[in-house]
Amino acid sequence: MMIEAQMFNKAQMPQSCQTDVSGSTVSLDETQTAIMQGKICPYCKGKTEYVDSAVIYGKSYGMIYLCKPCDAYCGVHKGTDNALGRLANKELRHWKKEAHKYFDVIWKEGHEKRGEVYKHLANHLKLPIEYCHIGMFSVETCKKVVDWSKMILNDLRRLDMDLGVDVKRPHYERP
Length: 175
Ligand SMILES: [Zn+2]
Prior knowledge:
Blueprint: H1 30-36, E1 49-52, H2 54-57, E2 63-67, E3 72-75, H3 90-108, H4 114-125, H5 139-162
Antiparallel strand pairs: 1-2, 2-3
Helix pairs in contact: 3-5
The structure holds zinc ion (ZN).
């Protein structure tokens, strides 16, 4: 279903979005880098396998990095062997999906470009933008993404209602 894109108007972005991106720094050590590249399993720290996704899905959706004992895996960027992020087990796969479910609505509704929304998120999470990808996040951070996205979506909903726009989205309850 396509949502009609609205012209983005900075003044329309909720207050919660309008903070500066701080220049925090994070550096990863060798193991952390290998984890983010899908080469090492973040759960058992073992070496991963690079296999066709058919071993998981019964049908090929491209290659994956896999740790069989941990039931953890991660896809790659199309046409490359670059992992989309760290390997994810069942719980993390669930929370990554939840994070995308709410976060993606913000840019898909056309309030702001995807990259800009990631900048706001990076600022909220106090992460450098290059490490601000849902594929890199832990369960705990994915939960933060869900909550932040709900807050933004609720704010946008209120603004739209004030402007007399018919909003199809519900108000989201937050913890
Ligand atoms: Zn493992």
